[in-house]
Design brief:
SH3 type barrels, two-stranded antiparallel ribbon, elongated, six-stranded antiparallel β-sheet
Length: 203
């Protein structure tokens, strides 16, 4: 094994906990796709955090590498690997909880440090924070009422599943608007419907 590949192996072993943590947080949190270099940097940051916390518990190295002539010999400590695996699971899970619920950014906004949220878009912010019935107004003038049970994460692809939907139409007799409930569990609104605006109703 060459000197370069030996060093590469050392770097990969160091980054493994970070890549595990990154994969978990990608599974739990809605966020923008990162490029390969960004993923490596994030994995490196996670690994630094994980190994820093691990170092307070034990000064041991989980995997020892040594090079004897053309061979690489490695020894590993099972207890250390279990500890690193637990940290690789716990840290991104806790971070996902804070990001999804916007807890840390709420504190930052209260302190007037920032006005940003932790979520990926205003679309996701509104649907997550405001749980209410909605009226969707389409570009062609149609309106539909319902409960937004599911919604897309990307505002560029505005999918909304309305539970117990009802069309809002004009009554020719009373000249007022009325609800025409559909005999369906729900309806999926797709981007082809051209949503113009969404009204969030009070209780």
């Amino acid at each position: 094994m060459s000197s370069l590949s030996f060093q590469t192996l050392q770097v990969l072993i160091f980054l493994i906990p970070g890549f595990i943590a990154q994969k978990i947080i990608d599974t739990l949190v809605v966020r923008k796709e990162k490029k390969e270099f960004g993923k490596v940097v994030e994995a490196l940051i996670f690994s630094m955090i994980i190994y820093t916390i691990y170092s307070f518990k034990s000064g041991k190295s989980p995997i020892m590498l040594s090079k004897i002539q053309d061979y690489t010999v490695y020894l590993y400590d099972s207890n250390s690997l279990i500890c690193l695996a637990a940290l690789s699971l716990a840290i991104p899970t806790i971070m996902a909880f804070f990001i999804t619920n916007d807890l840390h950014m709420k504190i930052a906004r209260m302190l007037r440090i920032t006005k940003k949220t932790a979520r990926s878009s205003v679309w996701f912010d509104v649907f997550y924070d405001i749980r209410a019935h909605v009226i969707i107004n389409f570009a062609d003038g149609r309106r539909i009422f319902g409960w937004p049970m599911y919604y897309s994460n990307d505002p560029e692809q505005p999918y909304v599943f309305l539970y117990n939907p009802a069309w809002i139409v004009d009554d020719p007799e009373t000249k007022e608007q009325k609800f025409v409930h559909l005999d369906e569990i729900g309806i999926l609104i797709t981007p082809k419907e051209e949503i113009e605006s969404i009204e969030f109703l009070k209780d």
